[in-house]
Specification:
With about 400 residues, the chain is α/β, with parallel strands linked by helices. It has two domains: about 140 residues, Alpha-Beta Complex (Aspartate Aminotransferase, domain 1); about 220 residues, Aspartate Aminotransferase, domain 2 (3-Layer(aba) Sandwich), CATH 3.40.640.10. The protein is built from 13 helices and twelve strands. The strands form three sheets. It has a seven-stranded mixed beta sheet, sandwiched between helices. The chain has a three-stranded antiparallel beta sheet with strand order 9-12-11. Strands 1-10 form a two-stranded parallel sheet. The longest helix is centred in the C-terminal third of the chain and has 21 residues. The protein is globular and about 60 Å long. It starts with 16 loop residues before the first helix and ends with a helix. Bound molecules: pyridoxal-5'-phosphate. The site of pyridoxal-5'-phosphate has 13 residues, from helix 5. Pyridoxal-5'-phosphate binds next to helix 5.
Length: about 400
């Protein structure tokens, strides 16, 4: 006799609490809404994403197609092809003054995001608190929470140029804090940690025995006199720092998905276990392109940064003319983080207004944590013409509201 069929529980009953309570990425949500409006025939300008408006340089594209045509279409070593791990170690030595072992100190991942996710799974568990200076990139806190830990915001002050001080860190510290997550140049504020900040942060990490996750994704996108220093170069920090980086931003390779984590082999070997059981390896021929990107000509980066610098200035000059709007010149990355506190509008309402009335998609600052409220993030990695048009429309929408 066959047993009676059991009724299927409501779908929500199958979803883990971990995921049910997780909000989708707010930046991707902005882009999705913009795409939907475009599909309805509305002429939306999307300044919500974080994607360079340049195509990957030809010599890098060729490296991938050549590798593919030569039959490099198979699984490769889980941690990455040796040539790429060596190119990454060489890049870290030359650009950052950091020594890592290409055999045991690097894991190549499909995007820097995956490297951060694997590290979260490796080092975070229930009972572990992670300090995250805010405003912060939208995926850090969800990654910590998915791994069962608690994200502890370290709110920074826009009136102090988002400076990260020992006092900020000390007031957020909990007895369960084990990790400090840094991101310089920062998404969304563009802040580049200076030597004084780095010194204070390093001594704080050493005093409290913390592991540091250093997300250096935007290290090549710097303006004016700003320079990038990895916290791993400070005394005593190499042993406790994991460096996260990738090729998405500097080489206009967002769609290729190529990133890495580098650091002390004892930590990296643990991450490798998560890596091998999740993605196996990053795409074989994409890794070949990565070797050529890192070891080939780098002048392309300067050309992109010059274009973004021009747009950074143009956007700030135009937005600063609007009543109640303050658009400081950012130090790095390719986002304007516009202060609208004086307009009295919450950031979600302002972003909605711009989408509905101006057909310009931007990200509300609160998506980057409570400290980002009163701000809007606009990507200026968009063509000069579109950006000019977008800023014009923003001016009209804000002007109409002020009138
Ligand atoms: C601060 C920061 N870290 C990491 C990433 C991940 O980049 P990817 O996965 O494309 O390497 C991004 C992407 O927007 C970012 O802004």
């Amino acid at each position: 006799m066959s047993s009676p069929t059991k009724t299927l529980a409501p779908m929500s009953g199958f979803v883990s609490d971990r995921v049910r309570t997780l909000a989708p990425s707010p930046t991707l949500a902005v882009s999705d809404r913009a795409r939907e409006m475009k599909a309805q025939g509305i002429d939306v300008i999307d300044l919500g994403g974080g994607d360079p408006d340049f195509i990957t340089p030809e010599h890098i594209r060729l490296a991938a197609t050549n590798a593919m045509n030569a039959g490099e279409t198979h699984y490769v070593a889980s941690a990455g092809i040796p040539a790429l791990r060596e190119a990454i170690a060489e890049k870290l030595r030359v650009d950052n003054g950091i020594t890592v072992d290409p055999r045991g100190g690097v894991v190549v991942t499909p995007g820097g995001k995956q490297a951060l996710f694997e590290a979260a799974l490796t080092f975070v568990e229930p009972g572990v608190d992670v300090l995250i200076p805010e405003p912060a990139w939208v995926s850090y806190a969800p990654m910590v929470e998915l791994a069962g830990g608690t994200a502890i915001p370290v709110p920074l002050d826009p009136d102090d140029n988002w400076r990260l001080t020992r006092a900020n860190l000390t007031s957020a510290l909990t007895p369960a804090t084990r990790i400090l997550l840094l991101n310089s140049p920062n998404n969304p504020t563009g802040r580049v940690l200076d030597d004084r900040e780095l010194g204070d942060i390093a001594s704080f990490a050493l005093d409290h025995g913390l592991l540091v996750f250093s997300d250096e994704m935007y290290e090549k996108i710097l303006y004016d006199e700003n320079r990038h220093t990895s916290i791993a170069t400070l005394p005593g920090m190499a042993e406790r720092t994991l460096i996260f980086n990738g090729l998405s931003k500097a080489y206009a390779m967002t769609g290729w998905r190529l990133g890495y984590v580098a650091g002390p082999p004892a930590f990296i070997q643990q991450i490798e276990k998560v890596h091998s059981h999740s993605v196996t390896c990053a795409t074989s021929f994409v890794q070949r392109a990565g070797v050529v990107a890192l070891s080939g000509p780098q002048n392309f980066i300067d050309e992109m940064v010059q274009a973004w610098d021009r747009r950074r200035r143009a956007v700030a000059a135009d937005l600063n003319l609007l009543p109640g709007v303050l658009c400081p010149l950012v130090e790095g990355a390719f986002y304007a983080f516009v202060d609208i506190r004086k307009t009295g509008m919450p950031s979600v309402a302002a972003a909605d207004l711009l989408l509905q009335e101006a057909h310009v998609a931007v990200t509300p600052g609160v998506a980057f944590g409570a400290a980002g409220e009163g701000h809007l993030r606009l990507s200026f990695a968009t063509s000069d013409e579109l950006l000019e048009e977008a800023v014009d429309r923003i001016g009209n929408a804000f002007g109409r509201r002020a009138a």
